[in-house]
Write a structure and sequence with these properties.
The structure holds two protein chains of two kinds. By secondary structure, chain A is α+β, with helices and mostly antiparallel strands. Chain A has a single domain, classed as Arc Repressor Mutant, subunit A (Orthogonal Bundle), CATH 1.10.10. In chain A, 62% of the residues lie in helices and 13% in strands. In chain A, a hairpin with a 5-residue loop joins strand 2 and strand 3. In chain B, 50% of the residues lie in helices and 14% in strands. Chain B folds into five domains: 59 residues, no CATH class; 185 residues, no CATH class; 231 residues, no CATH class; 172 residues, no CATH class; 190 residues, no CATH class. Classes of the chains: A alpha+beta, B alpha+beta. Chains A and B meet through helix 2, helix 3 and strand 3 of A and helix 1 and helix 3 of B.
Chain lengths: 123, 887
């Protein structure tokens, strides 16, 4: 039962990773999809490459959950674009998820850096 | 789930905006316009995939895909409307005819009585009635004393219920001012509770009601709907039955119209003991009615097996009681008399239907099943031909990346569409057809298709749909993806053209068609024979109706009829008037043994001494137009005070008074209470039905016998017989405002009812034959036309190397004739089987009637040739140069 539960969490977290990144990016101010993609790429020092198709579906998913809202507007270089901004619910979600993520990454760090005893010989 | 917040178009717009923004930015980073666009697109990845994922998000993917497949299949069918129409119509006709016949069979033979646990119910039957009794039916009716004895035991059967019609026809009722007619039954107090029939409104009867002969009535749901527009206020109102007031106390469950097949009872009353409500509407016999006359076996009985008792146990327990009760009031059993033996018949279904309809219905079902097989194979052949020509399309689809699954889905959807449209049409057809059939067959209970029929139809349709999808799948997949690239249009189909499956199908169809045509023509020839059977009278210009007056005493009854006859004679346009007890051509007759010259007659060769007799009025034979061979007709001067006279037919004279002048001899009932002097001999004619054989008949004069009751009035009029009815109605109601004319009809129509079943079956079988041959013709034509078009190249080559046009035509025709020949060889033995099964339904035709077989074979051959003519002509007109050039 316990393993089952941790499995679920792991999937949720992995799936939520992109969501979390988007929420964090939008916390800095409203932005269109292309901008979000660029920002994530840039702010992660190009470690993350965002698949744009997935990004837009993720944006749609977050919008459906009412964590972000969207409306069509004009970009700084006079292009029509769809701008996303964080809702109150989204802000709460961001706080909660980033807390979770920090706990997880700390745990990962502990395990990966700590002295792990040798595992089974046969393995 | 289906509420869409955002359109796919909006999403596409956003992606477009993204690509532009990205390109702008890349340009700022120093790329050329072209490169920037390209890079932006490459960075994005698969735009289509993203759009599709957006589209599928939140959708019930399977349903969505099915919808799209459906609309695709619809478009693809619309591209070949001729094919789609033919397939759908073929299905609709084939399935519709089947559904109709099956639903008749279901209603008549398979459907259970709408009662509680019908499998525990039994109809009571006897091997024979004791001697010295009169019966309605020798096996199915019992005396009141038998009923009384059986219902007072409670071991084997509980309860035992009796039911008996108030008339063998309709009975006079009145609700309000106007007299009407309705079908009514007297029943036991346990009738509704014992059968387990619900009464949605009011109550049923109790045992006390039966004991008290309470004046109560329960209406059937159908009658309540038809006559009283479901007015709940009828409860407590009075319904006059033969002038006796009955209080309406309940409405029976919907669908329950009594336990006899073919009859639909309108109302029930508890068993009565009043002379005006005697069983079967009979007048009292010497003052006795059904409750007091142990010699009159007239009640039908149905019973429920007591809990935990098997059928055999119940019979064994009741047998001694029954055999004792059978002789109550009859005195001692006669020397060497076979005692009656009680037995049970299944009461799951309506009584009497099984015997009347089982065999012809099964044969019809088999015939219509063949029509369905022909129709289905036709559609399969059509589909295979159509999909073979689509082989290039399929190959192309496979080459472009469609999976086999996608092809199967397409075929499934196409077949689903065909089957559901065809099925819906078939259902509508069946509903209409059963209504017409019910009217033709004069079956009053509902024949409309019910849930069982629906499920069966859906099952067959489902199966058909699967076959229709899978049969062409083989052809579709036979062409690999490469095929479309390798071969040309004209030659890619030659393989399919040589398929043997189509030939096998056509041969089988031709065989079934032979069977259908033989069956149809046997039945139609029987019908013609029946219709042309001379009745032995001038039946045109005769009109008949029943009257059932209240008759306080026999002399008053005679006065009533003398007055009625005299008044009707005075109506303008009336040529002559007479009356009779049993209506001619109504299936009813009195039959009993008689004394001739004071003793039971000696009959040569042990022939039957049963005489069919009737009670008649003055001018009986001259009104009917039956020739009097010697002596005279009944006359007004034959009265109770004049010498008692009787009239016989030729057969009577031949059998009981051979080689004698019958005039002056006497006959009378075998209890010897009356003797009639024969004053006339008339020519043999039909009495009970059109298909009866000559039988000894005798007639009493109504004014000279001690019984008088309801009568049928026969009038010969000038002009349209039915036009006299309004004037007649007025005359009758002047005499008694309670009296309706019961079942008025022309005598011709009345006789026709006795062959309505044969006419119905013959017409149906004829229709199936025509339908079959039509379907076979289209199927054959389709197959041949397709084969010829596939062989265009081959024919071109043949002609190029010297084949003449005649040879080409012969090549095609020879093929059809070969198939026809094989079909006939298979079909004729099958037809002989069907003819044998039909033997009981034939009249004046042998099951091996050669004319029917010759006609069927000639018909099939002619149709085969006709269907081949057009393709053959097309083959002959192939231009060899053109055919070769396309190669």
């Amino acid at each position: 039962m316990a393993t089952q539960q941790s499995n679920d969490e792991r999937i949720a977290l992995l799936q939520g990773t992109l969501d979390l990144l988007i929420l964090k990016t939008l916390a800095l101010g409203s932005c269109h999809g292309q901008g979000v993609a660029r920002l994530i790429q840039r702010n992660s020092e190009e470690v993350f490459f965002v698949d744009h198709g997935s990004l837009y579906l993720a944006l749609q998913r977050l919008e459906d959950k009412k964590w972000i809202s969207a409306k069509w507007g004009i970009s700084e270089n006079n292009r029509k674009a769809r701008f996303y901004s964080l809702t109150v619910a989204g802000r709460n979600q961001l706080a909660e998820k980033s807390g979770e993520w920090q706990r997880l990454s700390r745990a990962m760090e502990l395990i990966l850096n700590g002295a792990m005893g040798p595992t089974s010989e046969e393995a | 789930m289906f509420r869409r917040k955002r359109t796919a178009h909006d999403f596409a717009e956003e992606i477009k905006a993204h690509l532009e923004l990205e390109a702008d930015e890349l340009k700022d980073e120093g790329l050329s316009d072209e490169d920037a666009r390209c890079r932006a697109r490459r960075n994005f990845g698969n735009v289509r995939l993203a759009q599709e994922r957006f589209y599928l998000k939140d959708r019930w993917a399977f349903f969505d895909r099915a919808l799209r497949d459906l609309s695709f299949a619809f478009r693809s069918l619309r591209q070949s409307p001729g094919f789609a129409l033919t397939a759908i119509l073929t299905l609709a006709l084939g399935m519709g005819a089947n559904t109709a016949v099956f639903s008749v069979m279901n209603a008549v033979l398979l459907k259970s009585l709408p009662v509680d646990h019908p499998e525990r119910l039994v109809f009571l039957e006897t091997s024979n009635p004791p001697q010295g009794t009169g019966t309605i039916d020798t096996h199915e009716t019992f005396s009141y004393s038998v009923y009384n004895a059986l219902r007072n035991q409670s071991r084997g059967l509980s309860p035992v219920m009796a039911y008996v019609p108030l008339s063998n026809n309709k009975v006079a009722v009145r609700y309000g001012a106007e007299p009407e007619e309705a079908e009514g039954e007297m029943v036991s107090g346990t009738f509704f509770s014992g059968l387990g029939v619900d009464l949605p409104l009011g109550r049923g009867f109790s045992v006390q009601d039966e004991t008290d002969h309470a004046p109560l009535a329960v209406l059937s749901y159908n009658y309540w709907t038809r006559r009283f527009v479901r007015d709940p206020a009828v409860l407590g109102k009075t319904l006059f039955v033969n002038g006796v007031p009955m209080t309406i106390v309940g409405i029976s469950a919907e669908g329950f119209e009594g336990v006899d097949g073919g009859r639909s009872t309108d109302f029930w009353i508890p068993l009565q003991n009043r002379p005006e409500l005697n069983a079967w509407g009979n007048p009292p016999d010497n003052g006795k009615i059904y409750t007091t006359d142990p010699t009159w076996w007239c009640l039908r009985m149905i019973a429920r097996l007591a809990p935990g008792v098997s059928r055999d146990q119940a019979v064994a327990q009741l047998q001694p009681l029954f055999q004792q009760a059978a002789y109550v009031g009859l005195g001692m059993k006669m020397e060497g008399e076979k005692p009656p033996v009680l037995s049970f018949a299944d009461a799951k279904n309506f009584y009497g239907f099984e015997n009347m309809y089982a065999k012809p219905l099964r044969v019809l079902m088999a015939l219509v099943g063949m029509v369905l097989l022909i129709a289905l194979t036709n559609v399969v052949m059509l589909l295979m031909a159509r999909n073979a020509t689509r082989q290039r399309e399929f190959s192309l689809r496979l080459a472009l990346g469609a999976g086999r699954g996608a092809l199967l889905r397409l075929l499934l959807m196409e077949s689903f569409l065909l089957v559901s449209i065809g099925g819906a049409l078939a259902w509508a057809f069946a509903v209409a057809a059963t209504r017409v059939l019910g009217r033709w067959a004069q079956i009053e209970s509902s024949l409309a298709p019910d849930r069982t029929v629906l499920l069966c139809t859906l099952a067959v349709l489902g199966l058909a749909g699967l076959i229709f999808a899978l049969a062409p799948m083989r052809v579709a997949l036979a062409g690999k993806a490469e095929l479309s690239l390798k071969t040309s249009a004209a030659t890619s189909n030659t393989d399919a053209g040589k398929s043997h499956t189509g030939r096998v199908f056509v041969t089988l169809q031709l065989a079934m068609c032979v069977v259908l045509l033989v069956g149809g023509s046997l039945l139609i020839r029987s019908m013609r024979n029946l219709e042309n059977t001379p009745l032995g009278m001038k039946v045109d210009g005769l009109v008949v109706f029943g009257v059932n007056p209240r008759i306080p005493s026999v002399p008053e009854g005679r006065v009533f009829y003398v007055n009625l006859i005299n008044k009707l004679r005075e109506l303008p346009g009336v040529e002559s008037v007479t009356i009779m007890n049993e209506r001619l051509g109504s299936w009813w007759s009195n039959n009993s043994a008689m004394r001739v010259d004071g003793r039971p007659p000696d009959v040569a060769n042990g022939g039957s001494n049963t005489v069919r007799w009737n009670i008649a009025g003055p001018d009986f034979f001259s009104t009917l137009g039956v020739p009097v061979l010697s002596g005279r007709d009944f006359a007004d001067s034959d009265t109770a005070s004049s010498p008692f006279v009787g009239i016989i037919n030729e057969e009577f004279a031949k059998r009981f008074l051979p080689n004698l002048n019958p005039l002056g001899h006497t006959f009378g009932p075998d209890n010897g209470i009356a003797t009639m002097t024969i004053v006339g001999v008339v020519k043999d004619h039909k009495f009970r039905s059109i298909d009866e054989e000559p039988i000894p008949m005798a007639w009493y004069m109504y004014a000279q016998i001690p019984v008088i009751g309801s009568m049928n009035v026969e009038m010969r009029v000038h002009g349209d017989p039915l036009a006299i009815l309004p004037a007649t109605r007025k005359v009758v109601q002047q005499m008694d405002p309670n009296l309706p004319l019961i079942k008025p009809s022309t005598q011709r129509a009345q006789f026709d009812t006795t062959i309505s079943q044969q006419i119905l079956f013959a017409r149906l079988a004829g229709c199936f034959g025509l339908l079959g041959i039509l379907l076979v013709a289209t199927g054959l034509y389709g197959t041949l036309a397709y084969r010829v078009s596939m062989r265009t190249a081959e024919i071109g080559v043949r002609m190029a190397v010297g084949a003449r046009r005649g040879q080409v035509v012969w090549m095609i025709l020879r093929d059809s004739l070969l198939l026809t020949g094989i079909g006939v060889v298979i079909g004729v033995p099958l037809a002989m089987l069907v003819g044998h099964a039909l033997a009981a339904s034939l009249y004046g035709v042998k099951p091996l009637d050669s004319l029917s077989y010759v006609l069927a074979v000639v018909g099939v051959t002619a149709v085969a040739l006709a269907a081949s003519a057009l393709p053959a002509a097309r083959a002959a007109s192939v231009d060899p140069l053109k055919a070769l050039r396309t190669e």
